[in-house]
Amino acid sequence: MKKLLFILVALGSLLSFSCGNKANVVKMGTNAAFPPFEWVEGKEVVGFDVTLSNLIANDYGKTLKVVDMSFDGLIAALQAGSVDFIASGMTATEERRKSVDFSDPYYSSKQTIIVRVSNKSVSSVADLKGMSIGVQAATTGEIYATEEIEGASVKSFRTVIDAALALKNSAIEAIIIDELPAKEIVKVNPELKIVDDDFFTDEYAIAVKKGNTELLNSINNTIRTIKANGIYQKMLEAYMPLDGDVKIVTPEEL
Prior knowledge:
Helix content: 25-40%
Distance between the termini: 56 Å
Shape: globular
Strand content: 15-25%
Radius of gyration: 21 Å
Number of strands: 14
Structural class: alpha/beta
Number of helices: 9
Oligomer: single chain
Order of helices and strands: HEEEEHEHEHEEEHEHEHEEEHH
C-alpha cells in the first residue's frame, strides 16, 4: 500500500508539473520561410516576428514556443487550438477577419514583382498579363494574381523560396511577393531582380482565435508599448537595415 501510494503521489506530481509547464507556454504559429520576418537559422526559427512574439510572450507572462508549418494551414491550426496566435507576415484581410481576430497592424508592406534578370519585358504589373506567375499559397499575392491579372496562369507554392527556385529554373515567369522577402531573395539569387512597381500595400497583424480578447488585448498593448518606447525602431534597424546587414536580436538586446 505504501509503495502504491508513493507511485500515485509521484504520478500526480509529474502530471501537475507537466500541466504547469503547458500553462506557462504560449504558441506562435508561423511559416519560417519569409525573411526577414521568419526564417530558419541553424535549428532555430528567427526573425522580426519571432522577436516581436518573444516580447508578446514576456508581457503575457509566458514562455514562447514557435510552431513552424505551411502558411495555408495556420488559420486552421489556430482554430483547432494547436497554436495560440499567428505571427507570419499575415495581412489582416476582411476575408480572414471572418475566421480570426486581428491585432493592431504592426507593419505595412508593399507588394512587388520578381523576374529573371534576363527578362526585359516586365516593367510594371500591367506587363504580367497572360504570364505564368508564382505566389505563396493563401496569400494576398495569390488573390491579386488570380483576380486582377488578366489571363495569368497562377501557380501556388508552399513557400516563397520554392517560388524563387521555380523562377530560377524558368518554370514560371514572375513572382508576386512582399517587398522585404523579395529583397532577401534577390540578395542571394543574383540571376533574379525586383521590378520597381509598387501596386498595393498590405498591413501585417497578429491573429488570435475568435473571442480571445485577453490575449488580443495583451498583444495590442505590447505593440503600442514598443512603438512608444523605441524598441520597435531598434527592431526595424536590426532586421531591415538600409545597408542590408540583417542582425538577429533578442528582447534582452533591445
